[in-house]
């Protein structure tokens, strides 16, 4: 295997372009290079790493399994390099660094847009939508200046700004018989198929405990890691869902209605910033705008101080 020091950025860009565009010809147009030049870059990369990246069948090429695995890391590296280019250019032009916001998908789609509409930010904004764990990591490392996520929020290097409390709701298809009720009983969910979050350790664990306590047994579940997928499955008539209220009220979907449950399942989320640097004025303005948007959007919304975090987490751990 040739030394990896022989890897060239142009080789990685050519590899990524061929994977994304599906052919050397299309990649050459994207990169504004000749087709032979792109072919040569791919061949040099294959020589450097020691295994083929594409299977060739006449004019057609197909990525190998190793190529698809490698592509994930190459894309991450190229995106990081692009960020370095942008930051370097901003420093040269003495421009402000974009405000990077890390948020879980429900927060980035259900709450953040409404908050951004309330403030007139001069800063450029970048939104990083990822899991709660990755959102926390972005704040801990200082990559993001603002984080919006469900609890827990207290981590080393993280400053909690405020905690929001609301209650979970039931989402169901508009022609479902239960949609005629303004208040749905947990017992009504017996033998109904549930659309649930894939992660069993956060909200799903809590409402499954409530269902067990009420001796309610669903007919089965469909799991997904996306709140948007949950709503789409409901609209298709595949089941009902106990949902966090931010997506339910912040991202309404035609054909899906929201109803309250006869039992309160609290939902907690909050806003964080890095402890390593004080928030700039635009961040503080957005922290307040998020609070206002949540109060306007979510029924029975309560804003708690940051020091309530330990008490809230203790109460969640005690739920049985």
TrEMBL record:
<dbReference type="Pfam" id="PF03466">
    <property type="entry name" value="LysR_substrate"/>
</dbReference>
<dbReference type="InterPro" id="IPR000847">
    <property type="entry name" value="LysR_HTH_N"/>
</dbReference>
<feature type="domain" description="HTH lysR-type">
    <location>
        <begin position="7"/>
        <end position="64"/>
    </location>
</feature>
<comment type="similarity">
    <text>Belongs to the LysR transcriptional regulatory family.</text>
</comment>
<dbReference type="InterPro" id="IPR036390">
    <property type="entry name" value="WH_DNA-bd_sf"/>
</dbReference>
<dbReference type="Pfam" id="PF00126">
    <property type="entry name" value="HTH_1"/>
</dbReference>
<dbReference type="InterPro" id="IPR036388">
    <property type="entry name" value="WH-like_DNA-bd_sf"/>
</dbReference>
<protein>
    <submittedName>
        <fullName>LysR family transcriptional regulator</fullName>
    </submittedName>
</protein>
<keyword id="KW-0805">Transcription regulation</keyword>
<dbReference type="GO" id="GO:0003700">
    <property type="term" value="F:DNA-binding transcription factor activity"/>
</dbReference>
<dbReference type="InterPro" id="IPR005119">
    <property type="entry name" value="LysR_subst-bd"/>
</dbReference>
<keyword id="KW-0238">DNA-binding</keyword>
<dbReference type="GO" id="GO:0010628">
    <property type="term" value="P:positive regulation of gene expression"/>
</dbReference>
<dbReference type="GO" id="GO:0043565">
    <property type="term" value="F:sequence-specific DNA binding"/>
</dbReference>
<keyword id="KW-0804">Transcription</keyword>
